[in-house]
Amino acid sequence: MRTGHDLELVHVTKRYGDAVAVNDVSHLFRGGSYVCLLGPSGCGKSSTLRMIAGHEGVSAGSIVLHGAEVTHLPPARRGTAMMFQSYALFPHLSVRDNVAFSLRMKGVDKPARHRRAGELLELVDMARHADRLPSQLSGGQQQRVALARALVTDPQVLLLDEPLSALDPFLRVRMRAELKRLQRELGIGFIHVTHGQDEALALADEIVLMNDARIEQAGPAREIFNAPRTEFVARFMGGHNVIALPQGRFALRADDVRLAPEGAEAVVRAVEYQGGHVALTARMAGEQELLALIPEAAFFADPKHPGDAVRLAWDEGRLHRLHA
C-alpha cells in the first residue's frame, strides 16, 4: 500500500465569463482518503474536479499536490488521473490495449505496458476479458476497464466524475464496495463527484458538500449527517426536519420523531412504505410539516392514513441548532 499525498486547493475560483462556477474555495484533501464532492447540479463540484485534473483552467488561486504547485501543469504531469463518467474507451482497441494506451503514448515498450496492464486488470478482476473489445462488455465491466486505465499511470490521486451514474441500482451498490476496496488496497486518495447522498455516505471518509459555488460544510460522513451546520445541509442530506422555534432553527432527525399518546397535534398528509420503516408526513399547527420514520412493525400495529389526527413527540435533546 502506498502512502497518500495531500492535495490542497488555495482560494480557487473558476469563472465562465460573468458566471462564477467556483468561488474562492480552499480545502485540504488528506492523502489516502476517500473524499466525495457532493452537491446539487450546478453547485461547482464538477468544475472543481476538472480544475484539479487540469482539464479546466483556474481563474484565480492555486492547486498544490504533495507540496508542489500543479496549477498550470498539463493533466499528464500533475500526478492525478481522471475516470470520466462516459468511460471514454476506444471502441477499436482491446481491453488490454485500452488500459495500456497512456503508457504507449509515453513510449513504454509493448511487453512492459502489457505487463502493467495485466496487473491492473487482475486488480479489477478483468484479466480474463483482456482480448475483448469494449462493445463485448457490460456497463459494469466497461467501468472496471476505465478504472484500470486511469490507474495504469500510478497516480497520487484518482479523480472520479460520477462513475456510478450509468449503472443500474443493484450494480451501483456492488461497485461502491469495489471502489472502496480498491482505494484501501492502493492507499491513494480518491476524489469522487456525486449528487447522491446515499453514495457519499456509503463511500466517503470525508464529504465536501458544495452549494452555490462554495463549500457549505466538510467533514466525516457521520458528522455531516448528524450535525448539519446549516438548513441547506440538513435538507440536502435528507432524513431531517428543520424546525423553527423562538430560540432559532433546529434540525431533528426523522427517525427521532415518534407517534405518541401525548405530543404535538398533527394531521397525517402522506404515508409511504419504505421496507424497514414507514415514512409518515404530518402537518402541525402553523403549517409546519414533520417527517417521521416509524419502524415497520410499530406502524402496522396501529396504521395511520392521510387525514388521521396523530400526536408527534421527540426528545428535546435530539434537536440540533443550525447556523444561519
UniProtKB/TrEMBL annotation:
The keyword Transcription regulation does not apply. Pfam families: ABC_tran (PF00005), TOBE_2 (PF08402). Residues 7-237 form the ABC transporter domain. One of its GO terms (molecular function) is ATP binding. InterPro entries: AAA+_ATPase, ABC_SmlMolc_Importer, ABC_transporter-like_ATP-bd, ABC_transporter-like_CS, Mo/tungstate-bd_C_term_dom, P-loop_NTPase, Transp-assoc_OB_typ2. The keyword Ligase does not apply. Keywords: ATP-binding, Nucleotide-binding, Transport. This is ABC transporter ATP-binding protein. It comes from Rubellimicrobium aerolatum.
